[in-house]
Amino acid sequence: xxxxxxxxxxxxxxxxxxxxxxxxxxxxxxxxxxxxxxxxxxxxxxxxxxxxxxxxxxxxxxxxxxxxxxxxxxxxxxxxxxxxxxxxxxxxxxxxxxxxxxxxxxxxxxxxxxxxxxxxxxxxxxxxxxxxxxxxxxxxxxxxxxxxxxxxxxxxxxxxxxxxxxxxxxxxxxxxxxxxxxxxxxxxxxxxxxxxxxxxxxxxxxxxxxxxxxxxxxxxxxxxxxxxxxxxxxxxxxxxxxxxxxxxxxxxxxxxxxxxxxxxxxxxxxxxxxxxxxxxxxxxxxxxxxxxxxxxxxxxxxxxxxxxxxxxxxxxxxxxxxxxxxxxxxxxxxxxxxxxxxxxxxxxxxxxxxxxxxxx
Length: 360
Ligand code: GDP
Description:
Elements: E1 3-7, H1 14-22, H2 26-30, E2 40-44, H3 49-57, E3 61-63, E4 66-71, H4 86-94, E5 98-104, H5 120-151, H6 157-171, H7 176-180, H8 184-190, E6 201-206, H9 209-212, H10 215-225, E7 229-233, H11 235-241, H12 246-255, H13 262-273, E8 276-282, E9 286-293, H14 298-305, H15 307-311, E10 313-320, H16 321-327, H17 330-335, E11 340-342, E12 352-358
Parallel strand pairs: 1-4, 1-5, 3-9, 5-6, 6-7
Antiparallel strand pairs: 2-4, 8-9, 10-11, 10-12
Helix pairs in contact: 1-11, 5-6, 6-8
Guanosine-5'-diphosphate binds next to helix 1 and helix 11.
């Protein structure tokens, strides 16, 4: 469910990036019980806190939070009208929670560009236009039904107003996300339509050294896509990196002037874009990060481990990561009064170290 769909024009490096994501096999080994679909690539959310906790608890293994990506075929002009993979493709994106759009900014005369030249602004426009046209279609199809429901008072008129506002945004060529993401209520009204452009966007610029080494050029591209997030990586380098061991990979990154791999960036930014956070559990067996939404309560957080934990929730024993590290042990944190007992209403904070009490 928490997947990010990868889209982009043909030949921009989507498959190269996706291969890097799927060959990142360390992850699959960590999650033996998870079925990983062939078109899903997983990357760990980098989190140095896990090792620190594992040291305190003597944990045998670390389980970081996974972020999943789903490969969706390339978009060509006319996709919204059923050209190319058309509708099937659109159905695939509809299921993703966010969209990562791969944009080619690397120069390479050997790699043909579908439109003949490398022009990120025009490429993004092509893709976004197709998504916008698809959303307009969705709205036009829905409006008669929604108007009827408002008339017979089965539905709030505010919902119809929100849908019409989104229609106006799309008609002037903007994406819903970049125009009204700050309006929570309006976004809530639009939810049932699953509009493609209402999903959070991440722009993944597939770059060469010329851009990776130039903060100015990156800022220019960043400004083009704001308020959406942007990341810069070299897809080819990423697919080489996953073949190396940790040490070698770090050296290769350093040689390229980067301090973090593109996949790690992708996981971090993706996590942020999706409005997620993690809480932690730790013991002698494992230290693990669990993914929850910002604003989730303690029972909701417990439900991520097991639905029984949510149903039978009694209380949570919570210590912040920072307090626990400062104390150096759970016993010391307790004697300092840093371990709190929290109830059903407690809103989780990022980095809470938790033990749940529940009835089964
Ligand atoms: P897709 O159609 O978007 O999936 O694109 P591919 O991943 O198949 O890449 C198209 C071509 O571009 C392939 O020949 C890749 O080797 C090449 N390519 C992908 N990423 C890069 C990159 O970062 N730099 C360069 N120079 N070539 C790349």
